[in-house]
Amino acid sequence: MENSLDSKVHCLILGSGPAGYTAALYAARANLKPVLYQGIQPGGQLTITTEVENYPGYPDGIQGPEMMVEFEKQAARMGADIRFGLATKVDFSQTPFKVWIDDEKLIESDSVIIATGASAKWLGLESEQRLNGYGVSACAVCDGFFFRGKEVAIVGGGDTAAEEALYLSKLSSTVHMLVRRDHMRASKVMQERVQKTTNIKIYWNSEADEILGGSRVEALRIKNHFTGILETISVSGFFVAIGHEPNSAIFKGWIEMDESGYIKTVPGRTQTNIEGIFAAGDVQDKIYRQAVTAAGSGCMAALDAERYLSAKGFA
Fold first, then answer.
1. CATH fold group of domain 5-119+244-312
2. Which residues contact 309 (CB under 8 A, 6 or more apart)?
3. Where are the beta strands (DSSP E) in 54-213?
4. Is the pTM of this model over 0.85?
5. Overall average pLDDT of the 124-128 stretch
6. In what helix (H) or strand (E) does residue 43 lie, and over which residues does it extend?
7. ∠174-180-181 over CA atoms, to 5°?
8. What angle do CA 238, 41, 130 make, to 5 degrees?
9. Residues 289, 160: Cα–Cα separation, whole Å
10. Which of 10, 54, 118, 144 lies most in the core, judged by the most C-beta atoms within 10 Å?
């Protein structure tokens, strides 16, 4: 690995979703001269989302990729240095903190904002990826509105799946819920709510065999584990609710995380267990996971970083 120092900065931001770009915007306005590395998916999860209708300021809605381009442009206009590259290794043992980009470029920084996000877990079907954004979604709160009055399917058996099925039941005519086992992993109270909801139909011991449709989701083929019987139902939307995985692997051993890998922060703030390192967005938020909450925490991280750097005499 090449260890020659590429640059020394005051504020390094890792990740380029709403949290990262908002942090860059605020840090730039505070004259911290932030450097942001976009990561493996510039723009984050919103780049695989089509219509976004629940972000304030867009009364007619906006395409996810277009919104992220606007976020990037605004941060750049304020002076943020936005670069391509993926953080692959860190050394947070002392300041300045060390971060390697693409295994070869070494950046040293007085502060670091981690905004690397989280990735939805998928089933691995070809049709799932082909129709992603065209009826396939991993966020009922984000996309459920588009299926008002229509039949949809959701796969998952945990609390997230139960919560999203209940949310969809208020919008859609019927929610077909696929559970791989003969019982749900969700808490008892959530199970009871789901089973009492008349327009949620549960398919036990079942999985998605194939999502059917040309340019959009039109139907779902379901397979029962025990009988092997295939059943096809007509649906307009298919929601995957088998969990998310925070993009935090390279920080293990340095940053405190919960059992799922979400970064722990001081309640009400973005400070991690290491002074000078902050976390924002979905990498530390497993509850809300919305663009607007991610942007809000990005703002908080930049303000926290500004106060830290000022107190230390770095900025």
1. FAD/NAD(P)-binding domain (3.50.50)
2. 10, 11, 32, 110, 111, 315
3. 62-63, 81-83, 87-91, 97-101, 105-114, 118-120, 136-137, 151-155, 174-178, 200-203, 206-212
4. no
5. 94
6. none
7. 115
8. 30
9. 12
10. 118
Please give the average per-residue pLDDT across 297-310, as a whole number.
98
Q: Are 174 and 181 in contact (CB under 8 A)?
A: no
pLDDT at 6: 75
The two three-digit tokens of residue 159, written as one number? 């609390």
248 token code pair: 């935090």
Please tell me the predicted confidence (pLDDT) of residue 262: 97
pLDDT score of 3 more than 70 = no
* CB-CB contact of 30 with 45 (8 Å): no
What is Dmax (Cα atoms) for the chain?
68
Nearest partner of 240 among 211, 219, 263, 268, judged by Cα = 211
β-strand partners of 237: 152
pLDDT tens-digit series, residues 82-124? 999 999 999 999 999 999 999 999 999 999 999 999 988 899 9
The closest alpha carbon to 54, from 301, 288, 297, 302, belongs to 288
Handedness of CA 131, 132, 137, 143 (dihedral sign): negative
- Residue range 122-240 forms a domain whose CATH class is alpha beta
Report CA-CA distances (Å) from 2 to 6, 103, 105, 287.
10, 7, 7, 39
5-119+244-312 and 122-240: identical CATH topology:
yes
Domain spans in the chain, listed from the N-terminal domain onward:
5-119+244-312, 122-240
Q: Is 249 exposed, middle or buried (0-12, 13-18, 19+ CB in 10 A)?
A: exposed
pLDDT in tens, 211-232: 999 999 999 999 999 899 999 9
Name every residue whose Cβ is closer than 8 Å to that of residue 102 and which is 6 or more positions away in sequence. Answer: 85, 86, 88
Q: State how far the Cα of 47 lies from the Cα of 72, in Å rounded to an integer.
A: 12
- Pair of tokens at residue 139: 């966020």
Q: Are strands 62-63 and 97-101 parallel, antiparallel or unpaired?
A: unpaired
H helices of the chain, in order, are 18-29, 64-77, 126-130, 140-143, 159-169, 188-196, 291-312
